[in-house]
Design a protein that fits this description.
Helix content is 82%, strand content 3%. The chain has twelve helices and four strands; from the N terminus they run H-H-H-E-H-E-H-H-H-H-H-H-E-H-E-H. With 315 residues, the chain is mostly helical.
Length: 315
Amino acid sequence: MSPTIALLLGLMLLFFGGELLVKGAVALAFKMRISTLVVGMTIVSFATSAPELFVSLQALLDGSSNIALGNVIGSNIANITLVLGITAMIFRVQISQQTISLNFPVLLASSLVFGGVLYYFNGVPHIVGYLFILALLLFVFILIKKSRKDYVKVEDELLEEAKHDPLYKSIAFLLVGVLLLKYGADNLVDGAIAIAKNFEVSDRIIAVTVVAIGTSIPELATSIVAALKKENNLAVGNLIGSNIFNILAVLGISSAIHNITIDDAKILNFDYLWMIAITFVVGLFIYFLSKNQISRKEGSFLVVLYMAYIYFTLV
C-alpha cells in the first residue's frame, strides 16, 4: 500500500471511528442523565479526542515523539482557530457561564503547565503523565458533580436519536468505533512517516498539519452540526473540552505508557508558542472584547490566524 493511500485510509477510518464513538458515548451519557454541557465537555470531548490518543500512542510505539507531540499541539491549534472559527462564522457563538468560570481557566492552566513540563523535562516523563491523568479525573469529577446538581432536561434534536438508542447499540458503536480508530491510527502514522521520508520534510511538519487536521475532523463535524442546530453548549464545550483532554488524557496516557521526548526543538519554541498565544487570543475574545461570545468577525480572524500558522510552519 502506498503511503498516500495509507494516510487517506487512516483519515477515513479515524473519521468513521470517531463518529461511531461519539454516537455511542453520547447515548450512554444521556442514560446517565448528564447535561449537554457536560456531555460536550467530557463524553464528546474524550470521544473526539480518541483519534489523537490512538495516533499519539501508535507514533510513540513506532519511535516518533515528534508525531505524538505535534499531533496534540497541532490539533489544539486547529480546534480553537479553524474549528471554533468556522463554527463562529456560521453563527455568533454564546459562551456559557461554566465555560467562563471553570472550563476555559482549566484549559489555560493545563496549557501553561504543559509548556512548563516541555521546557523543564524536554518532553513529558512518566510521572507527569500520571499527574495529568489525576488532574483530568479531578476535573471530570467536578464537572459531573456540578451537572448532577444543576441537571436540566435535555431537549435537543441534534442528539434525539442518540438518546433513544438501545444499550446494546450504544455499546456496539463504541466497540466498532474503537476498532476503526485503532486501524485508522496505524495507517495514518505509517503513511505520515513514509511521506515525510519521501519528501524529506520533518515528521513534525506532517504531524502539526496533515495529521492534526485529520484527527480534528471529529471535532469539526460535531461543532458544525451543533452550530447549525444552535446548540452552543455542545459546540463550544466540545472544543474546549477536547483541548483539555488532548493535554491531560492523550499526553497523560501516552506518556504514562512511554516517555515522550522532544526530538525537534521547533515543537517547543514554535508550535507550542503558537498554541499558547492562540489560547490567550480566544480568552481575550471571551472576557474582554465581545464578552461571553465569539462573534463572526472574531471567528473569521481565528481562521486567518490558522492559515498564518500553517504558512509559517511550511515556509
